[in-house]
Design a protein that fits this description.
By secondary structure, this protein is mainly beta. The chain has one helix spanning about 20-25; strands spanning about 5, 15-20, 30-35, 40-45, 50-60, 60-65, 70-75, 85-90, 95-100, 105-110, 120-125, 130-135, 140-145, 155-160, 165-170, 175, 175-180, 185, 185-195, 200-205, 215-220, 225, 235, 240-250, 255-260. It is globular and about 50 Å long. It starts with a strand and ends in an 11-residue tail after the last strand. InterPro entries: Deoxy-glucuronate_isom_IolB, KduI/IolB_isomerase, RmlC-like_jellyroll, RmlC_Cupin_sf.
Length: about 270
């Protein structure tokens, strides 16, 4: 099995399914945890060196973050409900706790806190910009949770819905080199969900010289790590794809480079 693919599995006693650190991934920036909590379960954390974005993927929960409290957050029981998510941004050194008030799927996205000083920020659904990218069988629906136009030190966080039979993160693009406004160096994780859940998608991660070239069958709840290279996703016919992207790197900007041989696909028409 690919070293880039982490399979879905039953939660541990704390409710955690996925646990990625810079050390485990062999990279510099991104940390990612995915929790599936039963009603009444809690999870908490605090990191003196890393900023965090808590994303309520599905379900509802109460949150206490840096002394601020919210009795219940979350407006969808599935990421396929065509509703934008709730999220919370918190700077390094901020304690947090989330208690599930229903079954709750919670993503904990972290990256280096470089400057600090930013306030805790509740990101409501109405704060999340929605857009449609592509055309035809390359159409996908995007929810920008923490884009580079909003303040943070390192993190970029986005959700994407790929309609059944469509392609996403396509034409193939990469962001693994620092080249001004042409490209930024960003690590990335993809947390995948599939609807209906017995379906699958495909993701390929590859470089120009093919020193990295892996094609993966991705099932509901799997996680893919993208340290470098191009990383397109294809959703199987009959099955809608969702993924939560976390990106971070030395410079907080999203500039990508489309594979030269596929740039003709970007031509108007």
């Amino acid at each position: 099995m690919s070293k880039l693919l982490l399979r879905n599995h039953a939660p541990d006693p704390a409710g955690r399914v996925h646990h990625v650190t810079p050390e485990s991934a062999g990279w510099s920036c991104i940390g990612f945890d995915l929790y599936r909590l039963e009603e009444g379960m809690s999870v908490s954390g605090e990191d003196p060196d890393r900023e965090t974005c808590l994303v309520f993927v599905a379900g509802r929960g109460a949150a206490t973050v840096g002394g601020q409290e919210w009795a219940e957050l979350g407006d969808r029981m599935s990421p396929f409900e065509d509703k934008r998510p709730y999220a919370i941004y918190l700077p390094q050194g901020t304690p947090w706790q989330v208690r599930a008030t229903t079954a709750l799927e919670l993503a904990v996205c972290t990256a280096p806190g470089l400057n600090g000083g930013l306030p805790v920020r509740l990101i409501r659904p109405e704060d999340v910009a929605a857009s449609v990218r592509g055309r035809g069988s390359n159409t996908r629906h995007v929810f920008d949770i923490l884009p580079d136009s909003q303040p943070a030190d390192s993190l970029l966080v986005v959700e994407v819905i790929t309609p059944a039979g469509n392609w996403s993160s396509y034409p193939p693009h990469k962001h693994d080199a620092d080249d001004g406004t042409a490209e930024t160096q960003l690590e990335e994780t993809y947390y995948h969900r599939i609807d209906p859940p017995q379906g699958f998608a495909f993701q390929r991660v590859y470089t120009d010289d093919r020193s990295l070239d892996e094609a993966m069958a991705v099932e509901n709840g799997d996680l893919v790590m993208v340290p470098r290279g191009y990383h397109p996703v294809g959703a199987a016919h009959g099955y809608t794809g969702y993924y939560l992207n976390v990106m971070a790197g030395p410079r907080r900007a999203w500039h990508f480079n489309t594979a030269p041989e596929h740039r003709w696909l970007l031509a108007p028409g």
